[in-house]
Design goal:
Elements: H1 2-6, H2 9-27, H3 35-61, H4 80-83, H5 92-110, H6 114-125, H7 130-137, H8 141-161
Helix pairs in contact: 2-3, 3-7, 6-8, 7-8
């Protein structure tokens, strides 16, 4: 959920970690059944905070000519973990196809309005019930059902109209 929302795995991990730390430090004495919706509410707020911070940072980066990821000597550097071979043994073709399909889905998810995106990810990806999702999103269960239904309809249309979609009707 965080990765789709922020688009960067490092930022997503940071946001999830911050949300877990806040949940543990502030809500440890709450009943266990309240933790899951609380966590997703905190996560949603952390994601919004990151978007706000990035918006401000990007204003200033636009003024800096040639802004790049550089080391202390001013040289561009490559992350050795990004170029290391994958030990899983999955063929590069399969990895490429899986990556393309994930990118198509993530792109479609990013095109959804925020509330629909949130309802879809909480219900479908995170497995929250309608009640838990409503509590997390701070809205009624009816609103969750509406947002989720619209998200499914929109995603289905986007993916079916995508030339790369491999749904049941297209195989």
């Amino acid at each position: 959920m965080a990765l789709v929302s922020v688009g960067n795995s490092d930022d997503a991990l940071d946001v999830v970690q911050e949300a877990m730390m806040q949940l543990a430090s502030r809500y440890a004495k709450k009943p266990c059944d309240e933790w899951k919706p609380l966590f997703y509410r905190i996560l949603h707020n952390k994601i919004n905070d990151l978007h706000r911070r990035n918006k401000v940072r990007n204003r200033f980066r636009g003024w800096l000519k040639g802004y790049q990821d550089q080391n202390d000597n001013g040289e561009n550097h490559e992350d050795p973990f990004q170029v290391a071979p994958d030990p899983t043994g999955i063929s590069p073709e399969s990895q490429h196809e899986n990556r393309q399909q994930i990118e198509i889905l993530e792109s479609a998810l990013r095109r959804l309005p925020g509330r629909q995106q949130q309802a879809f990810m909480l219900r479908c990806w995170e497995g929250l019930s309608t009640t838990e999702t409503a509590h997390t999103m701070q809205c009624s269960e009816g609103s969750v059902k509406t947002h989720y239904s619209r998200a499914l309809h929109t995603l289905r249309n986007i993916l079916e109209n995508s030339g790369d979609y491999r749904g049941n009707n297209h195989e």
